[in-house]
Amino acid sequence: LIEIGAQVNFWRAPNDNDYGASLQKKYGEWKTTGKQEPTKVAVREVSKTKIVISSIKELFGGDAVFEQIFTIYGDGTIHISNNLKAIKGSHSNLFKFGNEWILPKEFKRVEWYGKGPYESYADRQHAAKVGLYSSPISEQYFPYIRPQENGNRAGVRWMKISRNDGVSLKILGTKHLNISALNFTNEDLDSGSSKGQKHAGELTPRDEVFLNIDGFQQGLGSINSWGAMPLEKYILPYKSYNYEYWIVPEND
Fold first, then answer.
1. 3-state DSSP call for residue 52?
2. CB neighbour list of residue 173: distance below 8 Å, 6 or more residues apart
3. Cα 153 to chain center, whole Å?
4. Which among 23, 24, 35, 207 is least surrounded, fewest beta carbons within 10 Å?
């Protein structure tokens, strides 16, 4: 049911406002941070139906530590805990603190209880109302003129991603989550260090589902696109963060 996951991620594809404020450069140190192999991994069999796997990654030469703990149960349920500990040093703000997953092409639909029906972010959500929504994954992507970050659903209490045969994965957070499920990678939507002029219509959807389960995400800005930062309450400074969630396999 899962191809790859849960890779820690601090980066999103910069949007027009981000480029206007040069955040793709100011935040650049976080783009590949956390992609390295763990410095320590431990596996503990708690019982015949419960295994705990923990991994630690040192970031920025030891300025910060990322610890991830998987608790795997015999029925296939997984609990994921993500802990970022800022120890020392001075570093830029973060775009986000989350996990990337890759699911097989058989997953075609999402259902969620949270903000909707369209995308929403910390500073762009007042028109999105909490409710129960469903959509084909192919319609989760919004084709802005230029590819950029999009498709996030904020305030998600739970989201279910389903195959046509009724098999699904249900994601539940201990706190509200930010989740996106697209047929595009972050790299597909990222123009790089300079704002590109590629058009959304030029992108070819991939077969796999690229799932982002984020505990924290910076606001979009939405004040202007030529230098303004998001309001301070929507910015993620360099400090310690933690969040957790469950993934539960189901069969309708």
1. strand
2. 156, 157, 158, 215, 243, 244, 245, 246
3. 10
4. 207
